[in-house]
Amino acid sequence: MTSKTGFVCDESYFWHQTGNGALNIRSGGWVQADIHAENPESKRRVKNLLERSNFMDELQQIKPRHATHEEVALNHSKDYINRVQELSDAGGGDAGEHAIVGPESYEIALNSTGGVLASVDAVMEGKVQNAYALVRPPGHHAEPNEGMGFCLFNNVTIAAKYARKKYGLKRILILDWDVHHGNGTETAFEHDSDVLFISIHQENIFPKNRGDVAFTGKEDGEGYNINIELPAGTGDEGYLYAFDRLIEPIIKQFEPELIFISAGQDASRFDPIGRMLLTAEGYFQMSKRIKNLAEKHSNGRLIACHEGGYSTAYVPFCTLRVIEGLCGKRSQVEDPFNQGFHEGPIYPHQKEAVHRAMKVQSTYWNLKSIKRV
Ligand code: ZN
Is 141 a catalytic residue? Predict the structure, then answer.
């Protein structure tokens, strides 16, 4: 097995158009045209920073391909897939709440999903140990019959279903650290015990009425859905506390054969539409911990799939740190943004939020008693 980290990107990802929005909405009415938050720059600058720092040389390039209609249909209804295609062919429209389709978005979305599928094959065939898929449009909000939150096809969900089918895997983990709840992924696997879904997100942000700590899955899937809701303002220490107390012990007990990360870098301290305080170093620590668990349980097999992240300036540094974590090697790049800032201590109400999730999950998993933490 090679220890290389793979990297998927394609120029087409940057050509998906979300129009003249402002923050998270389309412009119009009283909203003067500005740049939509989900624009190519934060992602393009990831690639640019990798090249500028020569850290790209550490990565093995994986060529994306178009996902087939059948592959996308592993998670989406034919009606919905056709609707995205029709909107795209017509020059654009809305495929759901905040799910903008532009001209050629259908083809680009197929290529985005296909980028993650190509990563699955590269990892499963041992061509690389793990991979980062810098894909766009993102996927984790997309439901079977509608797009949502800038997401058209649910890349990570389709990839997990593809891996399960093609490679006969029995235990797959999806860890979603995007600042928003991964509702589409949760919906896809809420009845399944062979895909463990963990979402760590800011409480009560998006989408409405999803991501509640008390929801643990349905029927056979009960106990295999973990929502960790953290209060706005949680930083590195709070996230790592959740890793120590909940995420890592549960992953060790589940023993996944393949791990996906829905890697949203919108929990960073500079994100315009999230209210968390993670630093790039915090992202490195989370990535490194998951890589270590992958080496222990899944033969190193780990795929990080890019989701949100809207600070044009900071997403590249956070994403670089995630990739460094996958490589097990640091680049020469220093984080220029955090000088003079506090690292982000943990406050009692943030610990309590982790304890609430521990209390819910201790029905299903062996966790340290809260009295002893
Ligand atoms: Zn997000």
Answer: yes
